[in-house]
Amino acid sequence: MQKKRLLVGVTGGVIGVMAVLLVKYGNPPNMGYCIACFLRDISGGLGFHKAAPVQYIRPEILGMVIGAFGAALLTREYKSVGGSSPLIRFFLAFVAMIGMLVFLGCPVRAVLRLAGGDLNAIVGIVGLIAGIAVGIYFLNQGFSLGRANVQHNLNGQVFPLVTLVITVLVLFGTTVFYTSQEGPGAMHAPVFLSLGAGIAVGILAQRSRFCMIGGIRDFILFKDVHLLIGFVAMLVFAFAGNLITGMFTPGFAGQPVAHSDGVWNFLGMALAGTAVTLLGGCPLRQLIAASEGNTDCVISILGLIAGAAFAHNFGLAASPKGVPVAGQWAVVVGLILVLGLGYLGNKQFSMSGGVNFEQNS
Q: Where do the TM regions start and end (predicted)?
């Protein structure tokens, strides 16, 4: 157990250090790593949305998939499984992304924003914890997406192989992808540094089972600090790195790629926290598990990418200017739908004649 905790702490610490390093060499401030933001950029890079400032095939994401896939193969932990409520997973990931783009960051970036001095992140983290608590309530009531079934390995290998093809295209400088000329998408560290950082984090996250949501969930449920150690290590190392490099700027106003509307920072992350708790893991964990052969998690990644495209195509995503009215309504509707799904998915309601998400598992 001590070795496992050490590995989780090392993973969190490496993410914190790498995040500072990536920002130092070109990534957007307080965004050395952000799974939601980077998947949004990839969504734009693939042409799924036309928001010109946020289009770039992020090598960090590509590297994480390659690193986790390679580690799973070498340790013989690779296994293709799937078939567990795929459409519900897609929906939960879709609405979670909308919540994160209203806050402007995933759970990883919430910690990195706080480590850089962005006090708005505190409100977002409180909202995230509240959302996780709501998700735990539904899990305790019996909510389940069902069991995954073993599949032919080729099913799980499609995702990392497609990622490898995209990586080769990026490394050869192909112009087939959309690339921002200004804004956050135009801010990026050198490709090989970003790819290498992603591979390192992918390997460590695969070995440690690192998960931002899992740490908070397990602490609330069992008072288990195992995964929470990574959360704390990331905060401490990123904070120290920002102090050393002079990138720590405390305050609420004028923070990079952020807004100071506390209500929607809270509600956006509450929506994300509830959805990903029901989903079974944070976006980073979904990405790693997808690389290990879990095709259900591939569906979750596709849901996140689709949610990012929808948010930007229909003007739902926040900006430093604030949260558009459409984005506010999207969060409210998303909360209603996710809470309704949590209610419909519990076993007590199922036994009374309602929906049972496990009946086909």
A: 7-23, 56-75, 87-110, 122-139, 159-179, 185-205, 225-244, 264-284, 296-314, 326-344
Q: 74: which 2 tokens?
A: 């070498």
Closest residue by Cα to residue 13 from 100, 103, 115 = 115
The residue whose two tokens read 């591939």 is: 298
Closest CA to 125 of 133, 33, 241: 133
Residue type at 223 in one-letter notation: K
pLDDT value, residue 359: 36
3-state helix, strand, coil in the chain (%, to 5): 65, 0, 30
3-class SS of residue 322: strand
- CA distance linking residue 171 with residue 203, whole number of Å: 20
CA separation, residue 355 to residues 280, 300, 334, 338, 351 (Å): 19, 21, 20, 15, 9
Query: What is the C-alpha separation between 108 and 11, in angstroms, rounded?
Result: 12
Burial of 129 (0-12, 13-18, 19+ CB in 10 A): middle
Measured distance between the N- and C-terminal CA atoms of the chain, rounded to whole angstroms: 32
Q: Which amino acid makes up residue 312?
A: H
Whole-number Å distance between alpha carbons of 357 and 319: 37
Q: What residues pair up with 251 in beta bridges, in sequence order?
A: 118
How far from chain centre, in Å, is Cα 227? Answer: 16
User: What does the pLDDT read at residue 347?
Assistant: 58
Dihedral sign of CA atoms 214, 307, 33, 110 in order: negative
Could you give the residue ranges of the DSSP H alpha helices within 179-324? 191-208, 212-222, 228-245, 262-279, 283-291, 295-313
Whether the Cβ atoms of residue 8 and residue 16 lie closer than 8 Å to each other: no
In 79-227, which ranges are continuous DSSP H helix?
Answer: 86-103, 107-115, 120-140, 153-171, 191-208, 212-222
List all residues 6 or more positions away from 240 whose beta carbon is below 8 Å from its beta carbon: none
Q: What are phi and psi of 251, to 5 degrees?
A: 145, 175
Profile the chain (361 residues) by mean pLDDT over runs of 10 residues: 91 98 97 96 97 98 98 96 95 98 98 98 98 96 92 95 97 90 96 98 97 93 91 97 97 96 98 97 97 97 98 98 98 97 74 40 33
How far, in Å, CA of 61 to CA of 63, rounded?
A: 5
DSSP state of 28: P
Question: For residue 304, which of 132, 102, 98 has the smallest C-alpha distance?
Answer: 98
Rounded CA gap, 335 and 256, in Å? 27
